[in-house]
């Protein structure tokens, strides 16, 4: 009897774990390849690092950090982005500003062929990243 109850309890735990939403972005790092349909600047790397609910990286000029949540294919990025405040050349600053705006507008994501696309609420691509 105890064995049956223990077995059922373990099976129940396994089923709950299988049904729990997974964070397919956790422990991944991505490099920007295009932003708003334009190629990323080649001389400065823009990165996304997803780790345990924290999104961090560099926008090509400054380091940043914020929280994120995933539910299915929905990606919610906290609008309160913490960032260093260094000044860089104008093209880099423009890209950094556009990158921050894309993060704030992100509502979903898609991974296909080793590319991560950040999407707005209408499903339009905001940015594309590679590993």
Written overview of the protein:
This protein is of the alpha+beta class and 131 residues long. It has one domain (22-130): Lipocalin (Beta Barrel), CATH 2.40.128.270. The protein is 26% helix and 39% strand. It has helices at residues 2-19, 90-105, and strands spanning 28-35, 38-39, 47-51, 54-58, 63-71, 74-77, 82-83, 108-112, 115-119, 125-130. Strands 1, 2, 3, 4, 5, 6, 7, 8, 9 and 10 form a ten-stranded antiparallel beta sheet that branches.
Give me the CATH fold name.
Lipocalin
Elements, N to C (H/E): HEEEEEEEHEEE
How is the main sheet built? 10 strands, antiparallel
Arithmetic mean pLDDT? 87
β-strand number: 10
Keywords: Signal, Stress response
Organism: Longilinea arvoryzae
Domain DUF306: 24-129
Signal peptide: 1-20
Topology diagram in text:
Elements: H1 2-19, E1 28-35, E2 38-39, E3 47-51, E4 54-58, E5 63-71, E6 74-77, E7 82-83, H2 90-105, E8 108-112, E9 115-119, E10 125-130
Antiparallel strand pairs: 1-2, 1-3, 1-10, 3-4, 4-5, 5-6, 5-7, 8-9, 9-10
């Amino acid at each position: 009897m105890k064995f049956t109850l223990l077995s059922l309890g373990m099976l129940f735990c396994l089923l709950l774990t299988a049904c729990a939403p997974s964070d397919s972005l956790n422990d991944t790092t991505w490099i920007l390849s295009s932003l708003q349909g334009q190629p990323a600047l080649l001389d400065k790397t823009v990165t996304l690092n997803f780790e345990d609910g924290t999104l961090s990286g560099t926008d090509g000029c400054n380091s940043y950090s914020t929280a994120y949540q995933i539910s299915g294919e929905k990606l919610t990025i906290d609008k309160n982005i913490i960032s260093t405040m260094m000044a860089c050349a104008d093209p880099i600053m423009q890209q950094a500003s556009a990158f921050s705006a894309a993060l704030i507008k992100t509502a979903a994501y898609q991974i296909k062929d080793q590319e991560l696309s950040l999407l707005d609420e209408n499903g339009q691509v905001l940015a594309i990243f590679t590993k």
